[in-house]
Design goal:
Two copies of one chain form a homodimer.
Chain A (H helix, E strand, L loop, with lengths): L4 E6 L3 H11 L4 E7 L10 H4 L10 E2 L2 H5 L4 E4 L5 H13 L3 E4 L12 H13 L3 E4 L10 H7 L4 E12 L5 H6 L6 H10 L8 H12 L5 E10 L4 E2 L4 E2 L4 E12 L2 E11 L10 E9 L2 E5 L5 H11 L1 H6 L3 E3 L16 H4 L1
Parallel strand pairs in A: 1-2, 1-4, 2-3, 4-5, 5-6, 6-15, 7-12
Antiparallel strand pairs in A: 7-13, 8-11, 9-10, 11-12, 13-14
Helix pairs in contact in A: 1-10, 4-5, 6-9
């Protein structure tokens, strides 16, 4: 490919904006176009729209067509759900762009949307383009990293993993969707109403692991429980008194027949360390050999998602056409730009 | 590919024999041929030669040609060094087989043998075959796993990692090459004489990381120091008194210009826990974000090497022709056979 890789940014929220900033720091990448439906952003310069320290000479479009024209790859960071990003992916493919999508469900869209997944795959192949769903989780911690670790196992009986993080940096939207600050009764109702959702992505991580290992998952069970605080906890956004909900312990279990083969846990709460809970990413493989991995503290979600999406760009551009997963591509790596000797200092 | 994958085993030592046993447990793989120069093994049935619980109907050959004929992939576990496996790889390629080689230097043969590496690459492409060097280390812990973790980083300044293991299970050969049971003076002389070697593979791991990240390493410095025991330590093979050498602390540092970018440490000793040293694999990435990973205890070297080599077979068969590294292939994974539901129990 002659010249820098031309990146189109679709969605300029926290993740999309972060990717715009990272692309500017990378040799070999250039922001070519941008799409967002927020009227506060459309029509403005991309740099201004994401509070970057300079104008980028790219206008934020409300419609995708013009932004996509002439681009090489489209980074979609607009929604968590396959049904909502489907038309965006289709539009990018129709314009001849490869796609990296941060929608959690796109990490393995066959898990819950096999029809749409097959349709994306068909259209990608038709246009000779590649589509990848990725992110820190799903996309890395509770799936790709687990898969890689099984590579040193002669046998795998069962996989358990947990991602224990601190929600303190997050604002009102996340507090609401995780039920932070509710009473146990409000939490229960929030779950029923679909306002409290916990983590999006467990079935996707599980199906990604299972596809790689050759397991056929028969069912996935999920539970969302309130984490009741024993202490006073307070962030810039919310106060939690003893007896109130500090977060959501979301668990998922995957079964082959009656055998539980994968169990994933993602308790998300504010200030877990107040009650002695150390944040981290933890993986236990019951196999031959057993493996017991810890990453402390956990890989931060925002930075990790932004980084892996941008880092995968060259691997996606070189990949075969079709809808792929992280398990189909070479191991991720920090790539291109800023890693030259002068930048190491 | 119709029918099972036909595997040829070249080298039937501890690693080679372990791979024979693992291949028998895998659906989709069959031992097709075997080569070893040990007169105690040639002419015998492969199962008997590696103390497997049954005959395998495959004769161990002293010459490669007959064993290779009709095979799909050759697992070479004969030596640590590129110069010693070169002719074996060439023979397997000439017979039209893909190759997975456990020689530590083959994990990234360009590190110290770029001429031979290029020649292997040329011959592999010529015959439409793939060659991969792998193993637990080099091949996974201190390179592939590190590369994968950088994938969630927006910036990588420096990488440090350590693999702290226990040599107690090993016999006289390893005791000698690691200097266990020597006096500090004997250790120094053993290093000079080349009898004590420490770990083989640091330059390979470092170049593998650097190639993936786009760093150009200017030099690698290595140090081998005696681990002097403060206590009495004793295994079935050796006794170490206080003041004697319990093992070899092998360190390597890679520089870009004057900047140290990678530092790897592999202290190998008997019974480290006697002096409070916990075995494990440790990775620290100084970047954005920082990453702090532990695997405790360490991934066992023998099982890990045997498993990853066999697990990579399908990925190597599907890969493009040429000499590849672990960074070129999809993430490793425990694959095929024994992972069906009935085997999970």
């Amino acid at each position: 490919m002659a010249g820098p890789i031309k990146v189109v940014h679709w969605g300029l929220g926290a993740m999309g904006g972060g990717m715009v900033r990272l692309v500017q720091r990378r040799v070999g990448l250039i922001s070519h176009g941008a799409v967002d439906t927020d009227p506060a952003k459309t029509g403005r310069d991309l740099g201004e729209a994401v509070c970057f320290e300079r104008r980028l000479g790219v206008s934020v479009e409300g419609e995708a067509r013009q932004a996509l024209t002439g681009g090489d790859i489209c980074l979609i960071a607009t929604s968590s759900f396959v049904e909502e990003v489907f038309s965006q992916i289709v539009a990018a493919l129709a314009a001849g762009l490869d796609v990296i999508c941060l929608a959690e469900e796109m990490a393995c869209p066959w898990a819950d949307h096999s029809g749409l997944a097959d349709e994306i795959d068909r259209r990608a192949k038709q246009s000779g383009c590649t589509v990848l769903g990725t992110g820190i989780n799903p996309g890395f911690v509770l799936d790709t990293l687990i898969i890689a670790l099984t590579g040193v196992c002669g046998r795998v009986r069962q996989i358990r993993a947990a991602r224990i993080n601190d929600l303190s940096p997050f604002g009102p939207t996340v507090m609401r969707t995780q039920g932070v600050g509710t009473s146990p009764e409000e939490f229960r109702r929030g779950l029923e109403d679909g306002i409290i959702v916990g983590h999006v992505g467990f079935p996707q991580s599980m199906h990604l692991i299972a596809r790689a290992l050759g397991w056929k998952i028969d069912r996935v069970e999920q539970d969302r429980e309130p984490i009741i605080s024993k202490t006073h906890r307070e962030t810039g956004f919310i106060k939690v008194e003893p007896g109130m909900v500090a977060g959501c312990r979301h668990l998922a279990r995957a079964f082959v027949g009656d055998q539980e083969v994968i169990s994933l846990e993602h308790p998300q709460q504010i200030l877990p360390e107040i009650e002695g809970v150390q944040t981290g990413d933890y993986i236990w493989i019951n196999g031959d050999p057993d493996i017991n991995l810890s990453i402390r503290p956990e890989i931060p979600g925002g930075k990790g998602t932004i980084s892996i999406a941008v880092n995968m760009i060259p691997l996606v551009l070189e990949a075969r056409p079709g809808l792929l997963t992280m398990a189909d591509l070479p191991v991720p790596r920090a790539l291109i730009g800023e890693l030259a000797p002068e930048a190491v200092q």
